[in-house]
Write a structure and sequence with these properties.
Length: about 400
């Protein structure tokens, strides 16, 4: 079992691991931490920029198939350092990373982020090793858990990992709600894995959560489901996508927003917005940023992540990559101004008290024709002790 290699000397991390108390992420001095984040990934047309066959750390075998899609891969350090300078300009303090290749080195990139005080949320899945919403029980298998455990092994030693994301956008309609059972089982398994590894080898037990689609967060009891049951099985944090449900939208949107905020107040774990920034009107105004960090929403939600840093075909980018340079788009300056404004609001964020109703064991929502997931725990296809014994024998 490999642990991440932390560079020595001046690049040693300067950030402390975040902890969770009730519904807040906390710094080591007890102050509440609010995320000013951005989604960061290599654009699809540029994912060949890191070629496995020319890398010092990877080869061309299928094992390394996702190395060229890993935005934290040390083999693209020069481009990464270019982007980190722009993160600083935006006052970004956390990245949302969908996909990593645990087989490659991330030490230099993670150390640079730590030096700049920037945290990361890391996705555990790949397009090939993930929960299939249409066949969830069949996709809950050895390969899925081995993949999840390998990402944990690669990143749990970094102090600036804010959390692991076990699933993203799995439940997005009534038919797929049954998949929530598997999502929760994976959360339970990964949490168990980290506890056992920490007992055997020491080190961190990193928070584990899920990221829901907007439909699931607003129209279903998904937040209550993932935070029900024992601490061993429930999520440590809850994230959701939000492009439409804000207090400044039409009356229908405002009603949904008020209902959503009430729902999130009740779940008792930290909440973040994993994607926001509607681009139906261009250029984007990012007025949601002011609302996200305003008093009412900040009392419940611990910040969020603008979608996304680099321009792709869907036109959500803040910069476009041209001949190796990151060219700022108009949205970059707009977001910079909005985040600068809210950063001033967050200077005294440590005075925000955790919700008084946080904590305790919550009941599972009932199974209905609109919510198909049940509360009976699923047996793991790869028990942690069995997996670790196999790894020890190899």
């Amino acid at each position: 079992m490999n642990s991440p290699e932390i560079p020595a000397g001046n690049n040693r991390p300067r950030v402390s691991p975040l902890s969770i108390s009730q519904n807040r992420f906390l710094l080591d001095d007890g102050k509440i931490f609010i995320f000013r984040g951005v989604v960061y990934q290599i654009p699809s047309r540029r994912r060949a920029a890191v070629q496995p066959e020319t890398s010092d750390h990877v080869d061309s075998t299928p094992k390394f198939r996702f190395a060229k899609r890993d935005a934290l891969n040390d083999d693209r350090y020069e481009a990464f350092a270019r982007d980190v300078a722009l993160f600083e300009e935006l006052s970004i303090n956390c990245l949302w990373i969908y996909l990593v290749a645990p087989e490659v080195s991330h030490a230099r990139c993670m150390a640079l982020l730590a030096e700049k005080g920037i945290y990361v949320f890391i996705g555990l899945w790949t397009p090939l090793q993930c929960i299939n919403r249409m066949a969830p029980r069949e996709s809950y298998n050895h390969d899925l858990l081995k993949r999840s455990y390998s990402v944990v092994n690669a990143f749990r030693g970094y102090s600036n990992v804010a959390g692991f994301v076990a699933a993203d956008h799995v439940v997005n309609n009534v038919r797929s709600t049954v998949a929530a059972e598997v999502v929760m089982a994976v959360v339970r398994d990964v949490k168990c894995y980290m506890r056992v590894v920490a007992d055997r080898m020491g080190g961190r037990v990193v928070p584990v959560g899920v990221a829901d689609a907007e439909w699931a967060a607003i129209e279903s009891p998904s937040p209550a489901f993932y935070t029900a049951g024992s601490k061993q099985q429930q999520v440590d944090f809850y994230a959701f996508t939000n492009y439409q449900c804000w207090p400044s939208t039409a009356e229908d949107g405002r009603q949904k927003w008020r209902a959503l905020l009430g729902k999130l107040k009740a779940i008792g774990v930290p909440v973040v917005v994993s994607e926001y920034g509607n681009n139906s009107i261009e250029p984007r105004s990012f007025d949601e940023t002011i609302q996200l960090y305003g008093d009412e929403m900040r009392a419940v939600v611990s910040g969020g992540f603008v979608y996304e840093f680099t321009q792709e075909a869907n036109r959500y980018g803040l910069v476009v990559i041209e001949d190796g340079s990151a060219v700022k788009l108009p949205d970059f300056a707009t977001l910079r101004a909005k985040l600068s404004e809210v950063k001033e609001l967050l200077v005294d964020s440590e005075s925000i008290a955790p919700a008084s109703n946080a904590g305790g064991v919550q009941d599972f929502p009932p199974t209905t024709s609109e919510w198909l997931a049940g509360s009976k725990p699923m047996p793991s296809p790869l028990p942690v002790e069995h997996y670790l014994d196999q790894e020890t024998e190899q």
